[in-house]
């Protein structure tokens, strides 16, 4: 059985990029499983036929032996970039949490060609070598980027390596698609909506490379679940009360606490399911104060059964994350948006409002009023939005995207480019710096030089405590552990 390696490039800035990669990965696993089952069934049938007829005839329409897919999902900034880029990317979470307006200003200012090129000039030297080490160690047959800041540098890395590996971009923003998403030089661009498609075409890029396939969500949302009544019994919910699901994304943001408080104080005839994600402090606070609520409530932390929770609910209140919006649509849920990230998620709000899928409620009064409209018996607004959700939902997008990715893999009869003469010749053409970088990674050695200034290394006290003649300005064979111990002792003396 042949193996093909698929490398997904992500960054854990929020939970959406990894969730999208995992959704496509899960779809690929299911596709692979179906291919193997079909091939095995064919083998059994052929064996049965040969025993019956006494002849071993090969069917003309027989299925080829299925391919085994090896998938690697890598946070490139965390594992392969250098300071200060690695640390700068980590500011995403705190910024959108504590100063979202600043993030929105940066998003809009950077969403243009000139700014993108300037940032690339500064950032590329801090990640290019690491990315090439990653590519040459994983040796993928195809590369898929699910983060806008990784697209241009990946094209650059493949050019430096001189390899023709298919490179695809999967866009995970519904409407507000940043300039960096569409890096010229990719083999295919997969977008979720007509609005994203329009932005792509405005850039003047090749229409033949564009695929509008939807937003990747977990394949679990396509699988059947229990009926709503059975799900409510499982979660100990009341049958006679409308159920409101409140979600704040993976980090439990989006004004969850304020929304719960507003619904409780309004004493609406509803029951709540609140998913706090990784926000343990909010989870503990809501559990501690739940006895004071004026409405029944179930509190959850980070969950892995979101399809069941959504199908047990009647309405969802959430921040404007693209993944959660598309998951809600697949479960026929009307949406109330309680918040959004300026710049990045503004288009998601527009998507929900323009398609009459829900409303934006940034203050408690609006939230309570909108809930009253939806829970009213025989609500026409509720029925209209349910119908709109069914019409626009693309629950199987992950399978469509997975099939598109697999279609760009080399045909089974073709050998891997990493065992080809082309790669052997190309290695000789690489500069000494690049060959050294790649060789270090291949041998599994991650060199971490101690952060010691040259002045410190010249100090006689430092030399005495290091007890070695090799610690000098030009030393290349330092004992890292003894050096670090000497540094600590030296600093202790200076204090």
Structure description:
The chain has 3 domains: 3-217 and 399-407, Rossmann fold; 225-394, Glycogen Phosphorylase B (Rossmann fold, 3-Layer(aba) Sandwich), CATH 3.40.50.2000; 452-495, no CATH class. It has 23 helices and 12 strands. The chain has helices spanning 16-53, 76-80, 85-89, 92-98, 100-110, 113-123, 128-138, 151-161, 194-202, 228-234, 256-266, 280-289, 306-312, 322-330, 346-354, 364-375, 380-392, 397-407, 421-429, 432-442, 454-458, 460-466, 480-494; strands spanning 3-10, 68-75, 142-145, 167-170, 188-191, 210-212, 243-247, 271-275, 297-300, 315-319, 335-339, 358-360. β7 (243-247), α11 (256-266) and β8 form a beta-alpha-beta unit. α10 (228-234) packs across α13 (306-312) and α22 crosses α23 (480-494). The chain is globular, with a radius of gyration of 27 Å. It is found in: Membrane. It comes from Ktedonobacter racemifer DSM 44963. This is Monogalactosyldiacylglycerol synthase.
Q: What low-confidence regions span 5 or more consecutive residues with pLDDT below 50?
A: 440-457, 464-483
Q: Which term fits the overall shape?
A: globular
The spatial strand order of the largest sheet comes to: 2-1-3-4-5-6
Instruction: Return the structural class.
Output: alpha/beta
In the CATH hierarchy, what is the superfamily of the largest domain?
A: Glycogen Phosphorylase B
The largest sheet, given as strand count, sense and whether it forms a barrel, is:
6 strands, parallel
* Architecture (CATH level 2) name of the largest domain: 3-Layer(aba) Sandwich
The Rg value, from CA coordinates, equals 27 Å
Average pLDDT over all residues: 84
Secondary structure tally, helices: 23
How many extended strands? 12
Q: Please state roughly what percent of the residues sit in beta strands, choosing from under 5%, 5-15%, 15-25%, 25-35%, 35-45% or over 45%.
A: 5-15%
The helix content, as a percent range, equals 40-55%
Q: Briefly, what CATH class of the largest domain?
A: Alpha Beta
Distance between the termini: 63 Å
Number of domains: 3
The CATH topology annotation of the largest domain reads as: Rossmann fold
């Amino acid at each position: 059985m042949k193996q093909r390696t698929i490398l997904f490039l992500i960054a854990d800035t929020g939970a959406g990029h990894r969730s999208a990669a995992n959704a496509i990965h899960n779809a690929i696993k299911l596709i692979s499983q179906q291919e193997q089952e079909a091939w095995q069934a064919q083998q059994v049938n052929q064996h049965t036929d040969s025993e019956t007829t006494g002849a071993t005839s090969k069917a003309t329409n027989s299925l080829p032996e299925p391919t085994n897919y090896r998938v690697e999902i890598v946070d490139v900034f965390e594992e392969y970039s250098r300071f200060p880029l690695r640390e700068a990317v980590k500011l995403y979470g705190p910024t959108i949490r504590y100063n979202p307006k600043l993030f929105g200003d940066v998003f809009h200012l950077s969403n243009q060609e000139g700014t993108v090129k300037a940032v690339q000039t500064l950032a590329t030297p801090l990640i290019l070598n690491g990315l090439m080490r990653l590519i040459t160690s994983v040796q993928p047959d195809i590369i898929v980027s699910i983060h806008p800041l990784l697209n241009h540098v990946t094209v650059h890395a493949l050019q430096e390596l001189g390899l023709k590996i298919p490179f695809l971009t999967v866009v995970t923003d519904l409407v507000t698609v940043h300039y960096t998403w569409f890096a010229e030089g990719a083999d295919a661009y997969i977008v979720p909506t007509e609005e994203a498609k329009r932005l792509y075409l405005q850039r003047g890029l090749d229409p033949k490379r564009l695929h509008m396939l939807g937003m990747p969500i977990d394949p679990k949302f396509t699988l059947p679940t229990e009926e709503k009544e059975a799900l409510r019994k499982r979660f100990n919910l009341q049958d006679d009360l409308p159920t409101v699901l409140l979600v704040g994304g993976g980090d439990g943001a989006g004004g969850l606490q304020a929304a719960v408080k507003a619904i409780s104080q309004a004493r609406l005839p509803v029951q709540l399911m609140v998913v706090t994600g990784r926000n343990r402090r909010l989870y503990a606070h809501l559990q501690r104060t739940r006895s004071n609520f004026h409405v029944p409530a179930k509190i959850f932390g980070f969950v892995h059964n979101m399809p069941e929770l959504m199908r047990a609910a009647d309405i969802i209140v959430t921040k404007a994350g693209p993944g959660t919006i598309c998951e809600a649509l697949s479960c026929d849920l009307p949406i109330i948006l309680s918040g959004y990230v300026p710049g990045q998620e503004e288009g998601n709000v527009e998507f929900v409002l323009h398609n009459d899928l829900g409303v934006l409620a940034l203050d408690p009064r609006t939230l309570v009023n909108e809930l009253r409209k939806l829970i009213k018996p025989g609500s026409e607004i509720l029925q209209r939005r349910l119908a709109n959700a069914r019409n626009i939902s693309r629950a199987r997008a992950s399978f469509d995207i997975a099939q598109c990715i697999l279609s760009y893999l080399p045909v089974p009869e073709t050998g891997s480019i990493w065992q080809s003469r082309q790669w052997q010749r190309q290695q000789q053409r690489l500069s000494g710096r690049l060959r050294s970088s790649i060789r270090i990674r291949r041998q599994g050695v991650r060199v971490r030089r101690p952060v010691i200034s040259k002045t410190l290394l010249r100090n006689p006290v430092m030399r005495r405590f290091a007890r070695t003649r090799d610690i000098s300005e030009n030393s290349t064979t330092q004992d890292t552990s003894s050096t670090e111990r000497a540094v600590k002792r030296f600093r202790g003396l200076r204090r």
